[in-house]
Amino acid sequence: MSKVIISCAVTGAIHTPSMSEYLPLTPDEIAEQAIEAAEAGAAILHLHARDPVDGRPSADPAVFRQFVPRIAAATNAVINITTGGSIKMTLEERLAYPLAAGPEMCSLNMGSMNFSIHPAARKIKDWRHDWEKPYVEGMEDLIFRNTFRDIKHILKVLGEERGTRFEFECYDLGHLYNLAHFVDEGLLKPPFFIQSIYGILGGMGPDPENLAIMRTTADRLFGRDNYMFSILGAGRHQMSLLTMGAIMGGNVRVGLEDSLYLGKGRMATSNAEQVRKIRRILEELSLEVATPDEARSMLGLKGPQSVKF
């Protein structure tokens, strides 16, 4: 088995400030938590931006520039910029900073989908900001859009023109077939980094059997030597699914974007806490953790020297 790549998704665009006092919101908080996560063992840092005033998701390149260069200067981690942004952003907004920076890696959701955490609104009585409650409840009637044409455009302007490679976010079995379509069209070449995602309402459930189905389907569509498999378990399913996936030869993703908890009833106080926990689990299983440069080699990345942070 090859070494295991740990990715860390530092803040995301789904959780809101009222859900956890530890969620990084300002550029300083995002930078500090990302750097700490890299020091703990994360080879890849998956980054979103937040409005520094009230913590709402932001696509403003000026906000990204307040923390991404600082992270790049302080760590050797692979910096992975979202192209998903939030469900309320246009494609142009989502791509504004990635197109300017041309990062080594970007995330790429492999289809349009219902994507929601609206039931979480029932659990919160006190909201810190006026935007939060309608944002969370409103997900019930919103669709995250990534059409075939959208995906093709992203592959062209980021992949072909800027040499960026992708974390292909696959929330359902059909997303693997969408990825295979673009391979058949000659728009993608291996190695593919497939992030299989479980436990998001609107996507595939967190059943362990689904992990096995995704793994065997990816083997059939791409051949195991042509892709790197990774696992994202949302919420309370994070560590159990990641452990199972690692045993099956997969890589792992943690971070406060994916889960606000470290264990049952215990909130994570930082992203690094989750990185340290999964690293400890991996090492107890006699699995080695990949360094950033080893991850670059495994994923065929262009290297940080070609990035405009």
Provide tags for this entry.
single chain, 309 residues, alpha/beta, TIM Barrel, eight-stranded parallel barrel, two-stranded antiparallel ribbon, 11 helices, 14 strands, 38% helix, transferase, Aldolase_TIM
Task: Offer a concise description of the structure.
The protein has 309 residues and is α/β, with parallel strands linked by helices. Helix content is 38%, strand content 17%. It has a single domain, classed as TIM Barrel, CATH 3.20.20.
Structure description:
The protein is an alpha/beta fold. The protein has one domain: Alpha-Beta Barrel (TIM Barrel). Helices cover 38% and strands 17% of the residues. It has helices at residues 27-40, 61-64, 68-74, 91-101, 132-138, 148-162, 173-184, 208-222, 238-247, 271-284, 292-299; strands at 6-9, 44-47, 49-50, 57-58, 78-81, 105-109, 113-114, 143-144, 165-170, 192-198, 227-233, 251-254, 261-263, 266-267. It has an eight-stranded parallel barrel, surrounded by eight helices. Strands 3-4 form a two-stranded antiparallel sheet. A hairpin with a 6-residue loop joins strand 3 (49-50) and strand 4. Helix 1 runs parallel beside helix 3 (68-74), helix 4 (91-101) runs parallel beside helix 6 (148-162) and helix 7 (173-184) runs parallel beside helix 8 (208-222). It starts with 5 loop residues before the first strand and ends in a 10-residue tail after the last helix. The model has no long low-confidence stretch (mean pLDDT 97).
